[in-house]
Inverse folding.
C-alpha cells in the first residue's frame, strides 16, 4: 500500500513517518506542499514540525497549501488521513476535524513519554488497538491544548469521536483530556503525540520491560494497511 507523507516548509518528522510506514509494511511516497498530485496514494500522513514557521496560527498557512486542497477533497471522499502534532493542527485549520489547538496551559514546550487511553477503535488508523488499552507515545509540543465550544464537546462525546485521552497527566490543558479525534466517517484521525517515534524497539519510549522498547505507535500504521487491504 502506498502511503503519502507530506512535507511542508518547516516539517521535521516526515522522514520518521516514512520510516514508520516502511516498518509497517507499506510504501512511503513523499508529497510536496506545493503539488496537487497525490500520486495515487492509498492514505496520507501529515507529520509533525513547524509548518511555515508556525506563523499566524500553527497549521493555518499549511491548511491553505495546494496539496491540502487535494487532500481535503479526497478525505471527504474517504481517503484515510492521519495528522500528527502539527498535522493535527493542520486538520483542525482545514476543518477536517473540529475545534482548535492553543498554547500549552503552562506556557512551556513539553517533551515526554505520554500514556494514552484508546477511546475508539473504529477508524482506519486505530483498528489494531483494543478499546480501553493504555499505550505510551512520545509527546512534544508547545501548542497542544485542545479547545472547543460546549456544543462541539458535547457532540464529540455523544458521537464517540474522541480517539485518545491523556492518562495520569494532562500535559497541555486539553479540554476533557482529549489527545486525539476522528471524523464521523473514521477515515481522518488527528492526535498531538507522535506515534512515528514509537515504532521500533531500541528507539521508542521507555517501558516497564526495558528502556526504549516501546512500539505502540506501529499499530497506527499497521491499522491503516489492514483497513485498506480489507476495504
Amino acid at each position: 500500500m502506498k502511503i503519502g507523507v507530506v512535507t511542508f516548509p518547516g516539517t521535521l518528522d516526515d522522514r520518521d513517518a516514512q520510516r514508520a510506514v516502511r516498518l509497517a509494511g507499506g510504501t512511503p511516497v513523499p508529497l510536496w506542499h506545493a503539488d496537487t498530485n497525490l500520486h495515487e496514494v492509498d492514505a496520507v500522513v501529515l507529520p509533525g514540525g513547524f509548518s511555515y514557521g508556525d506563523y499566524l496560527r500553527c497549521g493555518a498557512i499549511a491548511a491553505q497549501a495546494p496539496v491540502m486542497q487535494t487532500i481535503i477533497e479526497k478525505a471527504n471522499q474517504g481517503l484515510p488521513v492521519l495528522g500528527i502534532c502539527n498535522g493535527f493542527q493542520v486538520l483542525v485549520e482545514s476543518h477536517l476535524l473540529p475545534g482548535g489547538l492553543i498554547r500549552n496551559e503552562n506556557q512551556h514546550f513539553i517533551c515526554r513519554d505520554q500514556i494514552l487511553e484508546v477511546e475508539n477503535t473504529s477508524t482506519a488508523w486505530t483498528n489494531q488497538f483494543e478499546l480501553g488499552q493504555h499505550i505510551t507515545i512520545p509527546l512534544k509540543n508547545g501548542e497542544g491544548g485542545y479547545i472547543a465550544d460546549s456544543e462541539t464537546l458535547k457532540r464529540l462525546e455523544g458521537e464517540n469521536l474522541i480517539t485518545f485521552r491523556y492518562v495520569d497527566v494532562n500535559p497541555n490543558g486539553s479540554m476533557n483530556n482529549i489527545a486525539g479525534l476522528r471524523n464521523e466517517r473514521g477515515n481522518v484521525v488527528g492526535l498531538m503525540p507522535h506515534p512515528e517515534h514509537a515504532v521500533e524497539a531500541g528507539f521508542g519510549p521507555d517501558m516497564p520491560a526495558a528502556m526504549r522498547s516501546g512500539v505502540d505507535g506501529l499499530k497506527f500504521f499497521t491499522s491503516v494497511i489492514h483497513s485498506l487491504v480489507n476495504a
The chain has a mean pLDDT of 96. The chain has one domain: 2-229. The helical segments are 14-24, 66-75, 86-93, 150-158, 218-229.
